Amino acid sequence: MTTQVALVGGTGKLGRIIHEVIDGLDGFEVRRVLGSSSEFDELDGADLVVDASTPSVSVEVVRAATDRGLNVLIGTSGWSQERIALVRPLVDAAGTGAVFIPNFSLGSALGTALAAAAAPFFAFAEIIEAHRDSKIDSPSGTAVRTAEQMTAAREGQAPVAAPHADQRARGQRVAGVPVHSLRRPGVIARQEVILSGAGESLTITHDTVDSAAAYAPGIRLALPYARDARGVVVGLENIIDLGLSPSA
User: Fold this and answer.
1) Which pTM was predicted?
2) Around 133, how many Cα atoms within 13 Å sit in the side-chain half-sphere?
3) pLDDT beneath 50, residues of the chain
4) Same domain membership, residue 98 and residue 217
5) Burial letters 152-186, b for 16+ CB under 10 A, else e
6) What residue numbers bound the domain in which 98 lies?
7) What is the pLDDT at residue 241?
8) Do 177 and 190 lie in a common domain?
9) What CATH number corresponds to the domain at position 152?
10) Is there a contact between 111 and 161 (Cβ–Cβ < 8 Å)?
């Protein structure tokens, strides 16, 4: 049986990559592509909703899918733990599944897991992330997820040291970790996690140099997982079982 997919934001950069992956994947078919002028009634008849829209629209996509008893795979950025908490009761009550993937790159998921594994050993930590100048949201969803995972891994310890964090130039604190966002042409995605302690530092860097090639393997894994999921799942590491990062 073929899984019919309603793809929201299918004409955007990520949406086009997801569409190409689905076209080449056995057992899945894009039933409908929704754009900015589409009505959510167009989700009717689908078996799975895939969201690659914008942060301002994404929460409504999740609600519309859940209202219809449909599972949803969310690739849209901008979902923090606080924002996910707003839709978790809806998903649980409906008995459906909502899978949030801040970044479909396997390397990015591994970088976040490594940062979380290292976080308890360093008092200081900061994140620098860079994306193309057309990216709407900042910090990136990947940086938010990384900061949240690092703080979760430090449970029972003092918060990450962030001297003078009240100054705007010190970045935005996400889960207590200073995050600095760069938006510029000529870059796809780059994240550096810099951890510092007495007499040493550790930098964990991930670069995306070809988004289609980097994201496709993760998308292929996430689609069947999201189709069968129940409840809220956050992060590709829960699908590929890296064993280095706490589950959502």
Assistant:
1) 0.89
2) 3
3) 245-248
4) yes
5) bbbeeeeebebeebeeeeebbbbbbbbbbbeeeee
6) 3-104+211-240
7) 73
8) yes
9) 3.30.360.10
10) no
